[in-house]
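Write out this protein's structure.
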Amino acid sequence: MKRLSLALGLALCMAMPASAQMYKWVDSNGGVHYSDKPPPSNVKTEELRPPAQATDTPASSVEGGTKKDAAKSGPRSLAEQEQAFEKRRADAAKAQAEQAKKDAEARDRAENCKRAKAALANLELGGRQTRIDSKGERVFLTDQEITQATARARQDAAAVCK
């Protein structure tokens, strides 16, 4: 019984300095001192840690406060913590899926732009141009058809490569 009382007394004594106010000061010799007791009044002091404040219990702060205050204090039970975690994970997965979709769209736009520019460059290169007709046969384009196709390719490239 004496050992238990002694252990409890030592534990309480060790816990007290943790909540005490701390001071730092420099003495006349230039030595730096740290203490939980205020220094002499003739030296300049610096408070390192303010004294601990008594806090309300979570139940009293929720009952006395509004729902908004309760939301600020965060989840209280293990089930609520798990629910909040699942919500954050679902939100992160949703954001990641949206980002992946945006990246895929950007890659598709870049590929379409590349193809449109290549088609325009092919038409502007000159020479004989061909296309495949409805029968699957190669047909050579006239100069007027090449000019029309080049103008159309320029418009397509401008629209796709915005």
